[in-house]
Structures are given as structure tokens and as C-alpha cells.
Design a protein that fits this description.
Length: 142
């Protein structure tokens, strides 16, 4: 079989699906746990008109809740809403039977905020982006 490698900035959904399903299948076979059962979640901060102002977005899979995005506008920071979003996300993780929560942040973002909530650093990547550091944190719930 002759093969080639192509770089593209716009992979077709079918291409993404081939790779994703192949990896999920490999992982499920290796760990004996379904990974395709990814379940999304959002902890949304809304105003009285139900406009979303910020919050957290993520999903649970392989027994962990992963927070992909957390953001609040400057005017809402320091009001306790971020802590409330994180507490509700933790409650959701517990309700889903997750062993813990993981997330990442940058040196110019909120590492201290997460550590105050009981998260521990487990990885760093200096100079990502250049001049800054990326941090990975986790909090075990079990």
C-alpha cells in the first residue's frame, strides 16, 4: 500500500472522525473503559435576561471531569462567581462519579485561584506561549 502525508488547516469531519474513533477504540481496548461516552457540561453565569456572561465548559470521560474553558468578564471577577462556578463543576463531577477534575491555565491567568480551591500542579510547559508558562492542575475527589 502506498501512503502519503498531507498537512491541512481544514480537515474534513470524516478525517477527524477516522482519527478520533481509531484512538478511542485503541484506548478503550487498553484500559477496558468506554471513552466514547464523553458527556459535556457547562456551568453558565447568566444575567436576569438569561444572557450568558461567562462560566465553564468541559466534559467528563475516562472517569475524570475536564474543564476546557473558564472565563468571567473583568467586572465579575472577585465577586465569588468563579468559586461558585468551580464548586458547581465539582458537584457535577461528583454526581458523575468522577475521580477528579483536571484543567490547564497560563502564568498570566488563574493558577493561584485553582490552587486555593484545592487543585495541585502536575505539569508545566515553559515558554508556551513565549515568555509565559502553561500549567496543568488536578484535584482528586475520591
Amino acid at each position: 500500500m502506498k501512503t502519503s502525508v498531507l498537512i491541512t488547516e481544514a480537515p474534513a469531519q470524516e478525517d477527524v472522525d477516522v482519527i478520533l474513533q481509531g484512538l478511542i477504540g485503541f484506548n478503550e481496548q487498553a484500559i477496558g473503559m468506554p471513552g466514547a461516552a464523553r458527556k459535556h457540561f457547562a456551568a453558565l453565569v447568566r444575567d436576569e435576561a438569561r444572557n450568558t456572561l461567562g462560566g465553564a465548559i468541559g466534559s467528563s470521560y475516562y472517569g475524570w471531569l475536564v474543564i476546557d474553558l473558564l472565563w468571567l468578564p473583568e467586572t465579575l471577577r472577585g465577586t465569588g462567581l468563579g468559586t461558585q462556578v468551580m464548586r458547581l463543576s465539582e458537584a457535577e463531577a461528583r454526581a458523575r462519579g468522577c475521580a477528579g477534575i483536571r484543567l490547564d491555565t497560563y502564568s498570566f491567568q488563574a493558577r493561584g485561584f485553582y490552587e486555593k480551591l484545592g487543585f495541585s500542579l502536575f505539569g508545566t510547559l515553559p515558554d508556551h506561549p513565549p515568555g509565559h508558562t502553561r500549567y496543568w492542575l488536578a484535584k482528586r475527589l475520591d
